[in-house]
Amino acid sequence: xxxxxxxxxxxxxxxxxxxxxxxxxxxxxxxxxxxxxxxxxxxxxxxxxxxxxxxxxxxxxxxxxxxxxxxxxxxxxxxxxxxxxxxxxxxxxxxxxxxxxxxxxxxxxxxxxxxxxxxxxxxxxxxxxxxxxxxxxxxxxxxxxxxxxxxxxxxxxxxxxxxxxxxxxxxxxxxxxxxxxxxxxxxxxxxxxxxxxxxxxxxxxxxxxxxxxxxxxxxxxxxxxxxxxxxxxxxxxxxxxxxxxxxxxxxxxxxxxxxxxxxxxxxxxxxxxxxxxxxxxxxxxxxxxxxxxxxxxxxxxxxxxxxxxxxxxxxxxxxxxxxxxxxxxxxxxxxxxxxxxx
Length: 342
Known about the structure:
Keywords: Repeat, WD repeat. By secondary structure, the protein is mostly beta strands. 3% of the residues lie in helices and 53% in strands.
């Protein structure tokens, strides 16, 4: 099924490429997004969709000193988030806290908790401890993997351990295993490499050509999904890492020349998969079981005026997701009507 967007839109003032759900806010569909302006003062927007609402509301608008290339919400405190930034030829990451009474302040300012110093290359992502705690972080740049110990009350972060990927490897992202807090995966050119954080040694790998992005299935241990630049979407069982256990048909993952570069599994239901490309296309597939053939494509959304750089499922409403295109346009969609027709 293909069609235009029937979603609810929200416009940022400047270009943007990162969006994150507010994971602890179980009462509202909430997202954080940040801008990427070279000349103007950048902004972080906290936006919410009220229950039964038809309009996205800006709950908080905060200035940010640098271009925001990545943003991640803390999974156990809805007021804390991280940004990875670029300033000229310098790269860095910071931890921020939204002021407690921001809704009652005229000009609320973000509280800077600490910086994650020590990176000499562009930071690819910040990963929060999967659930329940906010005292551990991982930062990944092009060559290095850092594990941090974070103390919010003391506004301090210390490197707990560090490992280099080596001269022959180029890291481009990663994800923390929700089933094993001692395991993290990193995308590395044509493979995903898995690390034991207790020893900072590699434990396993999955070979997949030109991998762009991957996500763990939080409901099924050992299962993950990859987005590969040339060959689309694959589902893997880490107990059998040689070949994927499922491949979405080419027509699902390559439409009108659009190659999939982002993929996310809905965290509270194992059957929904959201995929997107930079070429003005976002789509969902329903995959009931990693060992069965996928159900038909639910829908595609192809009326973006610019490339899609960010996607995020709502933690409050499992049928709702947000997409962000480079022109600063946020669109929140619900696929519940599509599910009910199946």
